[in-house]
C-alpha cells in the first residue's frame, strides 16, 4: 500500500529531470537519504507514467520539463486517488516567489531551488519520509 | 442781365463761408471805397471840403487793403487781422471828413468794416464796432478840435453808432449761431469719419482673425495628419466621434467620413473590457446617463485628469488590437469640458517584446542555473566523499572552483534582478525591518573579505533601534552591495565605516571608504547598467557594473534615496536614506 512504510522497507522514490547530470545528482541524494530509487525519468510524461506504474512513496520532480511540467505532474498525482499519500518535492531553477506559490498550489510538499546542496536535499528527503513513521 | 446774374452767382459760390480770408473780407469795403474816392475826385456834384483828407483816406485804405493781403498770405487766423477794418474805419472817417463831415454822402460806407468787426467771435466786438463808428463819425470834430455846435450834431454822433451797434449785435449773433452750426456740422462729420475709420479697421481685424483662424485650423489639421502611428480620435460628451485622423483610419480600418458624426468611440472598444472597468469603478445602477462603457472610458478625464491605460480596440473587420490610450478632456474658452480626445498607440509589438523578454529571462535563468547546479552539487559531493578524503591542496582547488561557481551564480542572480527591475516586475516582500540587524549582518558577512584584504571595517550603530517598512532581504542586498563595493575599491590599509543614523523623516545608512574614489564626471552615470568607473577598470577591480544599479533600484522601490559624494584618491561616501514610517503605521505593524 502506498505510503505504508516501515523501517525495514525503504521508501520508494521516482525522480524526474530533463538534465541527466541533475538526475544523477538527485539519485545520489536519494540514496544518501536511505531511500530506494525505483525510476529516473527524463521528462514529465515518463514521470507520470512511472508514478502510475510504481506508485512510489515519494517523487522528486523538476518544474520545467518537456512533455508535462513538474507542476502538471503534481496536479495529476494529487487528483489521482490511487496515489493518495504520495510525497511530492519540486526542483526549480526559477527564483521568483510565484513559482514557489504555484508549487504549493499544485500540492507539492517541499520546494528546492537550483542550485541545491545534495547534502541538504538528502537531509530534507529523509526528514520528510521520517514523518510518515 | 442773365449773364450778370450768372457771373454774380459764380463769384458768390467761390466764397468760402466758414473761414473767409481777410482779403475777401476787405474786398467789398475796398471796392466801394474806390467808387466813393473816384466820385469825390471826379463828380462835380460831390462837395469836397478838403482834398488832402481824401488823399490821406485813399492812402490809409490802400494800406489796410495791403495788410489784408498780407494776413491772407500769412495763412493762419489771427486777431491782428482786425486792424484791417480798423484802418478801413479810419480811411472812411477821413473820406467823410474830406467830403463835408456830417453832411457827407459816404457815411453809409461805415457799415462794411462794422460787419467785419461784429462778425468776430465774442460779444465785446459789438462794443468795439460801436466805439469804432462813433470815433469815425466824431473824427471831423477831433481833426478841427472843436465840439459839435448844434444839438443835432451831438445826436448824429450818438444815434449813428447806436444804429451801427444794433446792426453789429445782430451780425454778431448771427455769426455766432452760424459758427455754432458750422461747429456741430464739422463735429458730426468728424464723428462719422471716426466711425468709418473704426469700421474699416474692425473689418481689417476681422479679416486678420479669419486668416489666423484658417492658419490655426490648417496647423491642427496638418499635425493630426502627420500623426500616422497613433490614432487620434475626438468625441463630444456622449462619445460621438468628430475627429478621426489618418492614424485612426489605418489602425481601425475606417475612413474619417465613415465615422465622424456617425459612430461612437466605444463601438471600437472591447465591450467586455469596458464592462469590467465600469464594474471596477463600481457605478451604481442607473448612475450614468451616458453609455456606462463610455463613462468608464473617460472616468478620469471627466474629472479633469488625463488617463493613460491599456485597452483593446476592435477593428472594423472584427480583429483586435492592444492599445495604450491616453484620454484627455477637451475644454471650451470657459474651461468647461465639451468632449474628449483619445490618443492610442498600438502596443501589440511592445507587449510581444515584453513577453519575449520575460521568456528570455526565464530561459537564461533556467539554462544558466542548471549547469551551475551540477557544478556546485558535484563539487559538494567531492568534498563530502568520506571514503577518499581530499588532500589539503585538493580542498583548496575545490574552494577556488566553488567560489567562482558562486560568483557566476550571483552574477546570474544580478542579471535576472536587473531584468526584473527593467520590466517593472520587482516584487517587494514588505515587512517591519530593524535596520540595525540588517546592517550588522551585512558587515559581518563582509568582514572575512575585508580582513583578507587588510581593510579595517568599522560599524557605528545608534543606541535605539531604527525600524523601517521594507523588504529585509532586498535591503540586506543593498547594504551588502555598498559594503562590498567599498571594500573592493579600498586599497590595503584603508578603512570602511558603516554607520546607521536617522533624521526626523529618514533612516540613513552610510558607507564611507578611503578608497580610490570616483571621478566627478562619472558620478551621474554611476547607476547605469554595466557602467564601471574608470578608476575601477584602471585598478582592475573585478565586477560587471550591476551592483549600484540594483542598489539604486532597491532604494527607489523603498521610496528612498541613494546619494554619493566622492573625491578621487580620497574616498567615497554612499548614503542610503529610507523614509521612516509614521508612528501609526508602526503601531499597526
TrEMBL record, chain B:
Gene Ontology CC: plasma membrane
Protein name (Swiss-Prot/TrEMBL): histidine kinase
Keyword terms: Kinase, Membrane, Phosphoprotein, Transferase, Transmembrane, Transmembrane helix, Two-component regulatory system
Domain Histidine kinase span(s) in chain numbering: 363-582
Domain of life assignment: Bacteria
SUPFAM superfamilies found in the cross-reference section: ATPase domain of HSP90 chaperone/DNA topoisomerase II/histidine kinase, Homodimeric domain of signal transducing histidine kinase, PYP-like sensor domain (PAS domain)
TM spans (from-to): 27-46, 52-70, 77-95, 101-118, 125-142
Molecular function via GO: phosphorelay sensor kinase activity
Entry EC no(s): 2.7.13.3
All residue ranges annotated as the PAS domain in the record: 216-268
Annotated catalysed reactions: ATP + protein L-histidine = ADP + protein N-phospho-L-histidine
SMART domains: HATPase_c (SM00387), HisKA (SM00388), PAC (SM00086)
Residue ranges occupied by any PAC domain in the UniProt entry: 307-359
Natural source organism: Lacisediminihabitans profunda
Localization (cell): Cell membrane
Amino acid at each position: 500500500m502506498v505510503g505504508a512504510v516501515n523501517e525495514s522497507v525503504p521508501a520508494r522514490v521516482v525522480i524526474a529531470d530533463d538534465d541527466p547530470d541533475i538526475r544523477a545528482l538527485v539519485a545520489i541524494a536519494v540514496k544518501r537519504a536511505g531511500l530506494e530509487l525505483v525510476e529516473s525519468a527524463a521528462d514529465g510524461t515518463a514521470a507520470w507514467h512511472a508514478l502510475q506504474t510504481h506508485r512510489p512513496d515519494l517523487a522528486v520532480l523538476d518544474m520545467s520539463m518537456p512533455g508535462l511540467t513538474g507542476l502538471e505532474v503534481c496536479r495529476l498525482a494529487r487528483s489521482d486517488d490511487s496515489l493518495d499519500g504520495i510525497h511530492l518535492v519540486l526542483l526549480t531553477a526559477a527564483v521568483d516567489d510565484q513559482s514557489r506559490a504555484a508549487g504549493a498550489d499544485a500540492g507539492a510538499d517541499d520546494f528546492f531551488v537550483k542550485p541545491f546542496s545534495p547534502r541538504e536535499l538528502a537531509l530534507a528527503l529523509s526528514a520528510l519520509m521520517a514523518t510518515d513513521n | 442781365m442773365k449773364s450778370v446774374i450768372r457771373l454774380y452767382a459764380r463769384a458768390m459760390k467761390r466764397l468760402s463761408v466758414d473761414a473767409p480770408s481777410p482779403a475777401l473780407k476787405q474786398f467789398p469795403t475796398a471796392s466801394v471805397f474806390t467808387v466813393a474816392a473816384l466820385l469825390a475826385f471826379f463828380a462835380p456834384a460831390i462837395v469836397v471840403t478838403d482834398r488832402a483828407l481824401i488823399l490821406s483816406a485813399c492812402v490809409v485804405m490802400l494800406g489796410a487793403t495791403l495788410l489784408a493781403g498780407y494776413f491772407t498770405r500769412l495763412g493762419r487766423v489771427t486777431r491782428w487781422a482786425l486792424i484791417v477794418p480798423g484802418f478801413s474805419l479810419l480811411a472812411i472817417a477821413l473820406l467823410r471828413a474830406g467830403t463835408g463831415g456830417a453832411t457827407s454822402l459816404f457815411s453809409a460806407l461805415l457799415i462794411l468794416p462794422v460787419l467785419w468787426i461784429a462778425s468776430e467771435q465774442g460779444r465785446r466786438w459789438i462794443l468795439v464796432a460801436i466805439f469804432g463808428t462813433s470815433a469815425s463819425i466824431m473824427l471831423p470834430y477831433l481833426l478841427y478840435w472843436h465840439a459839435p455846435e448844434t444839438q443835432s450834431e451831438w445826436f448824429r454822433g450818438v444815434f449813428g453808432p447806436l444804429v451801427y451797434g444794433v446792426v453789429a449785435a445782430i451780425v454778431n449773433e448771427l455769426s455766432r449761431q452760424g459758427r455754432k452750426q458750422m461747429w456741430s456740422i464739422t463735429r458730426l462729420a468728424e464723428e462719422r469719419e471716426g466711425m468709418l475709420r473704426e469700421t474699416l479697421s474692425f473689418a481689417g481685424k476681422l479679416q486678420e482673425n479669419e486668416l489666423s483662424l484658417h492658419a490655426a485650423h490648417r496647423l491642427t489639421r496638418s499635425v493630426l495628419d502627420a500623426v500616422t502611428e497613433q490614432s487620434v480620435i475626438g468625441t463630444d460628451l456622449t462619445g460621438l466621434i468628430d475627429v478621426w485622423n489618418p492614424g485612426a483610419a489605418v489602425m481601425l480600418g475606417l475612413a474619417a467620413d465613415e465615422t465622424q458624426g456617425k459612430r461612437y468611440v466605444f463601438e471600437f472598444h472591447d465591450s467586455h473590457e469596458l464592462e469590467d472597468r465600469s464594474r471596477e469603478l463600481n457605478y451604481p445602477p442607473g448612475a450614468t446617463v451616458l453609455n456606462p462603457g463610455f463613462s468608464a472610458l473617460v472616468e478620469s478625464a471627466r474629472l479633469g485628469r488625463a488617463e493613460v491605460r491599456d485597452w483593446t480596440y476592435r477593428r472594423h473587420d472584427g480583429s483586435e488590437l492592444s492599445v495604450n490610450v491616453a484620454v484627455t478632456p477637451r475644454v471650451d474658452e470657459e474651461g468647461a469640458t465639451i468632449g474628449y480626445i483619445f490618443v492610442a498607440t498600438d502596443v501589440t509589438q511592445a507587449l510581444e517584446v515584453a513577453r519575449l523578454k520575460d521568456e528570455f529571462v526565464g530561459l537564461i535563468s533556467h539554462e544558466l542555473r542548471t549547469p551551475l547546479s551540477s557544478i556546485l552539487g558535484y563539487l559538494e559531493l567531492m568534498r563530502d566523499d568520506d571514503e577518499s578524503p581530499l588532500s589539503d591542496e585538493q580542498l583548496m582547488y575545490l574552494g577556488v572552483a566553488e567560489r567562482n561557481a558562486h560568483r557566476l551564480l550571483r552574477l546570474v542572480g544580478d542579471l535576472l534582478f536587473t531584468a526584473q527591475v527593467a520590466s517593472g516586475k520587482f516584487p517587494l516582500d514588505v515587512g517591519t525591518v530593524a535596520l540595525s540587524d540588517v546592517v550588522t549582518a551585512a558587515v559581518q558577512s563582509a568582514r572575512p573579505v575585508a580582513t583578507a584584504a587588510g581593510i579595517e571595517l568599522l560599524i557605528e550603530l545608534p543606541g535605539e533601534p531604527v525600524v523601517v517598512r521594507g523588504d529585509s532581504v532586498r535591503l540586506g542586498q543593498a547594504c551588502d552591495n555598498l559594503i562590498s563595493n567599498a571594500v573592493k575599491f579600498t586599497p590595503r590599509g584603508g578603512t570602511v565605516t558603516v554607520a546607521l543614523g536617522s533624521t526626523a523623516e529618514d533612516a540613513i545608512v552610510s558607507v564611507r571608504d578611503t578608497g580610490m574614489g570616483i571621478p566627478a564626471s562619472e558620478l551621474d552615470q554611476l547607476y547605469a547598467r554595466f557602467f564601471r568607473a574608470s578608476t575601477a577598470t584602471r585598478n582592475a577591480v573585478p565586477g560587471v557594473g550591476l551592483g549600484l544599479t540594483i542598489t539604486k533600484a532597491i532604494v527607489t522601490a523603498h521610496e528612498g534615496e541613494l546619494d554619493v559624494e566622492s573625491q578621487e584618491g580620497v574616498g567615497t561616501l554612499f548614503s542610503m536614506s529610507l523614509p521612516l514610517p509614521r508612528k501609526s503605521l508602526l503601531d499597526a505593524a
